[in-house]
Amino acid sequence: MAWGSGAAAQQLYFPGDGQSRGITGEAGSDSHIVGFLGSGDNALYGLSYGERADHPCYFRAHGESLNDVATDFEDEEDRCGSRGPRDRSRLFVGWIDGLTFEVGNEASDADEAYEESADRYFIHGVQGCFERHKLKGLNVMSIRVLEDGSLGDPPVPPLYSPPPGVIYGQFGLRSTAGSFVRSQNCNGNDWANTVECGPRQVAVAIGVHYERGKQPENITGLELWCRRVAVRPSKQDIVGGTQPRDKLPSR
Asked: What share of the chain is helix, strand, coil (3-state, %, to 5)?
């Protein structure tokens, strides 16, 4: 159901087209958009990737409607070959109730926990860790989207390069200063540039860049695509002639 109750509940939407905010890592010889660049009111709350024989070749975007907490969507690209990624290599990273959340064997538990969470956090920035031009870690920044269409406080904590040698279990790193997934092959010197959405924007898709060749193909970079959040004009606004432009959130 939508936030709020009754007919007065405000609906959020994306009034404009998606905008590329740049690439973390390197552009590859081929790329594929994973996510919801042209569809509805879906935004990203989590990302996951997987490997086959030490080749990062699988990527999945986890999304949800801005207005319906029970509506989840996923999109993926698999360049691992007929066998797909190894199950134990599939890692998820995202925010739930403002806490970092990452799991091995990917995201079924994370999806359920996110659906039950009270607060709505969507991805606002992405940083990749690349070892020999191959994706080996993810760091996401998320921002809270409120019922009235405004965004919460600026993304806190900010993206930063995590200290070397801090490993969370066998699947990655957990830190109160960000949300990370990292392999043992990824150290503090391998974190690439960060890319962030603009003001009043959240992430809706990732352009996954690959080095084209024999599968499994390596992921070399991630391109962040964002859209601006606004409150959909009400029928009263339109009839009354008080809607000359999109109603913007307060932040």
From this structure: 10, 45, 45
